[in-house]
Amino acid sequence: MSFLSGIRDKAVQVAAKNLILSKTNAVTDVKSLEIDSKQKTFSLQLELAGEAEPLTVTGSYRLGSGGEKTVVTPVDIKTSKEWLTILAAELVQGRTFEVPAIAAGFL
User: Fold this and answer.
1) Distances (CA, A) of 47 to 25, 32, 42, 97, 103
2) Could you tell me the end-to-end alpha-carbon distance of the chain, in angstroms, rounded to an integer?
3) Residue 41 phi/psi, 5° resolution?
4) How far apart are CA 32 and CA 49, in angstroms?
5) Element spanning 104, H or E
6) Which residues, 6+ apart, have CB-to-CB distance to 30 below 8 Å?
7) How high is the pLDDT of residue 21?
8) Looking at residue 83, what is its pLDDT?
9) What string of pLDDT tens digits covers the 107 residues of the chain?
10) Which among 69, 61, 72 is positioned nearest to 101, based on CA atoms?
């Protein structure tokens, strides 16, 4: 990983952590979050309300454009809970999500 891509990945990680924590009360802490923009992979470990063990999520993603906007498409999502891996495959994997403009420049 080059120095600049490392800085870029760290900036995206901080923004993603703040976004996750601001969107739901179900996630009480983001224990770890790693994004590799060269390999287009991610991994995170989340503390969840009411759960004794953290949830681990890994996967890869594709970036694209939807008109003038940057979009991300999660692929190959795996979690530490089999039922949630199945749910992610059914509801999240392959869908496109708009990347906030502030983060798009770092990807």
Assistant:
1) 11, 10, 17, 23, 24
2) 14
3) -125, 160
4) 16
5) helix 101-104
6) 17, 20, 21, 44, 45, 46, 47
7) 83
8) 97
9) 566 567 777 777 887 888 888 888 999 999 999 988 889 999 999 999 999 999 999 999 998 987 788 898 999 999 999 999 999 999 999 999 888 776 666 66
10) 69
Return left, alpha or beta for 84; rule: phi > 0 is left, psi -120 to 50 is alpha, else beta. alpha
Alpha-carbon gap, residue 63 to 66, rounded angstroms:
10
Please, which residues have CB within 8 angstroms of residue 17's CB and are 6 or more apart in sequence?
Answer: 30, 33
What residue ranges do the domains of the chain occupy?
3-104
Q: What residue has token string 């979050």?
A: 33
Instruction: State phi, psi for 51 to the nearest 5 degrees.
Output: -110, 135
